Structure formats: structure tokens, C-alpha cells
């Protein structure tokens, strides 16, 4: 019963109630029907105080649900920066991957979360990791991005972090070719200046 209360308190962002339930013996790894822990539920809702309370109590930032999301991976993918920083400070596995075989950096780059990308690069996530689709963070920022300000800045951050600008996708199409096909002139310039062919 306490476990259901934990999940509800996490979803509502009630940090005080979570601390009380933990004191009363609720287990930190209680899961809902989707396999999400209370910490992942709090992360879904971007409930920072609740996430902090759970992490301080020792909740596992790498515990995955049935679709391979963990608090760390989800916070990265959704740009929930404060929770991401908490997970990074508390044992986030930088090599862990989501259901697409991608690190937290790849969806963060795709979705245009500039500060999240910066944070993950600084944490040491592999900038050239290739997911099951054959895509890197650089390729996703181009082919699933908008070519606008945020995605251009993400491409710049990835290049500055040493991303391989010639690492092609699974079909052999280079980042530069993808940028040209989409008419992303500023991204094309950045890639060319970095030696992209």
C-alpha cells in the first residue's frame, strides 16, 4: 500500500510526503504498472523537489521501466535539466542506453535542448555513440532538428566537443549531405569549417 502512495506522491511532486513514506518503510524501488519507479514518475512530471527527496534517500537514477527509460535517460531526453544534474551527481550511468540504443545525448540533441546537451557533453557522454538506427547525436540534430538557432548551436557544441563530422548514418549519408539536402546553410558552414566532406 505504501508503494502506491509513493507513486502518487512522486507524481504530485509532494516531497514532504515522500520523505514521510520513506521514514515509514516504503521501498524506494516501488514500481507502477509501466515499471516506472517513484523517481521516474517524478521525473516524468519534472517534479524537482520530489526527485531530490528520492535521490537523497538513495533512489536508483538508472532503474529502467518496461520501455527502457530511466530517470537519467528521461531527464536528458526531455531537457529536465535540474533533475538531470541531480542524476549526474548521483551515479548516472553515462553509457546506459534507451530502447533505440541511444544515450541521453542523442534525443537531447534531436529535441533542441541546448543546456542539456552542454551538460551531457561536460559529463562525458560519448558524442559519437551510434544508436540502433545508425544515427549519432550530430546526425539526429540535423535530420530531426529544425535547422534553427537551437539545433545550429547544438551542432556547434558537438563539433567543439570533438564529434566526428564525417561519421555517416547507417545508409552512408554524411552529416554534411543531410544538412545540404535540408538547406541548413549555417549548419553546413559549421560542418565544412570542421572538415566535413
From TrEMBL:
Coiled coil: none annotated. It comes from the Bacteria. InterPro entries: Ank_Repeat/CDKN_Inhibitor, Ankyrin_rpt, Ankyrin_rpt-contain_sf. Keywords: ANK repeat, Repeat. Pfam families: Ank_2. ANK repeats lie at residues 34-66, 67-99, 100-132, 133-170. PROSITE patterns: ANK_REP_REGION, ANK_REPEAT. This is Ankyrin repeat domain-containing protein. It comes from Ensifer canadensis.
Amino acid at each position: 500500500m505504501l508503494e502506491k502512495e509513493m507513486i502518487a506522491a512522486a507524481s504530485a511532486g509532494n516531497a514532504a510526503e515522500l520523505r514521510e513514506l520513506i521514514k515509514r518503510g516504503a521501498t524506494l524501488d516501488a514500481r507502477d504498472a509501466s515499471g516506472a519507479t517513484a523517481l521516474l514518475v517524478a521525473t516524468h512530471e519534472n517534479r524537482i523537489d520530489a526527485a531530490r527527496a528520492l535521490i537523497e534517500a538513495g533512489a536508483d537514477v538508472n532503474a529502467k521501466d518496461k520501455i527502457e527509460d530511466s530517470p537519467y535517460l528521461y531527464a536528458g531526453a526531455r531537457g529536465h535539466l535540474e533533475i538531470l544534474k541531480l542524476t549526474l551527481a548521483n551515479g548516472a550511468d553515462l553509457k546506459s542506453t534507451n530502447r533505440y540504443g541511444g544515450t541521453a545525448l542523442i534525443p537531447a540533441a534531436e529535441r533542441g535542448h541546448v543546456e542539456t546537451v552542454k551538460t551531457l557533453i561536460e559529463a562525458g557522454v560519448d558524442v559519437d555513440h551510434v544508436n540502433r538506427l545508425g544515427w549519432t547525436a550530430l546526425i539526429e540534430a540535423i535530420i530531426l532538428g529544425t535547422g534553427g538557432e537551437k539545433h545550429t548551436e547544438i551542432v556547434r557544441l558537438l563539433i567543439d566537443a570533438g564529434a566526428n563530422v564525417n561519421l555517416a548514418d547507417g545508409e552512408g549519408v554524411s552529416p554534411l549531405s543531410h544538412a545540404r539536402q535540408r538547406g541548413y546553410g549555417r549548419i553546413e558552414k559549421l560542418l565544412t569549417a570542421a572538415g566535413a566532406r
